[in-house]
Specification:
Layout lengths: L1 H30 L13 H15 L2 H20 L10 H23 L6 H25 L22 H29 L1
Helix pairs in contact: 1-2, 1-4, 2-3, 2-4, 3-4, 3-5, 3-6, 5-6
Length: 197
């Protein structure tokens, strides 16, 4: 009973963090007259992961948990290691960024540890296919808005591992291989831990 209580506390704390982070960010941009469809829609991978993770925490739907596992943990961790931040630690956006991305990663870890979902290779390929379809859709959105969602138009302004992926056509190929590699790694980790339990 105590473990269940602790789980519910952590679950709802993460849910509130995800929702408040996204809502306050959109509000802050609007209040400061910065909001635009080009930059502030939650369409980056971490933005989508945040929304899916919040939905998974709220509903505990098995498929949402599986998707969260693959798209939340590694992208949010990479963002934490190489933050694309124009402000220092005295600014709201600095703290929002770190709390938000930590909550995204922890939601992915919590959900897969607590809920009895089964990750198969078929699941891995299916979620990766959804990510590819989403990236194609974002390519059209970026063209229409002049945006850079999923960093498909260019790499971030700060130095990140994406800078090592080359230019032009090879950038997209290597980006896809990097994503597939992270999916395979998560599947491999899941298999190891599921066998040890």
């Amino acid at each position: 009973r105590k473990q269940q209580t602790n789980y519910q506390i952590v679950r709802w704390v993460l849910f509130v963090l995800l929702i408040v982070s996204e809502f306050s960010y959109q509000t802050w941009a609007a209040v400061h007259d910065l909001w635009s469809m080009k930059e502030y829609l939650p369409l980056h991978l971490c933005g989508i992961a945040s929304l899916v993770a919040a939905a998974a925490l709220f509903t505990r739907h098995h498929y949402l948990i599986k998707v969260t596992y693959f798209i939340a943990i590694i992208p949010a961790l990479m963002a934490l290691v190489t933050p694309d931040l124009p402000h220092d630690y005295l600014h709201y956006r600095f703290w929002k960024f770190f709390f938000h991305h930590m909550a995204i990663s922890w939601a992915g870890v919590l959900l897969i540890l607590v809920h009895p979902v089964t990750i198969t290779w078929k699941t891995t390929v299916k979620v990766f296919g959804l990510l590819v379809l989403y990236a194609i859709a974002m390519g059209f959105v970026n063209q229409a808005l002049g945006a850079n969602y999923l960093y498909l138009s260019r790499t971030p302004y700060v130095e990140t591992p994406l800078d090592w992926l080359g230019d032009g056509f090879w950038y997209y190929i290597n980006l896809g291989l990097l994503a597939f590699g992270s999916f395979w790694l998560l599947y491999f980790i899941y298999r190891i831990f599921s066998k040890s339990v």
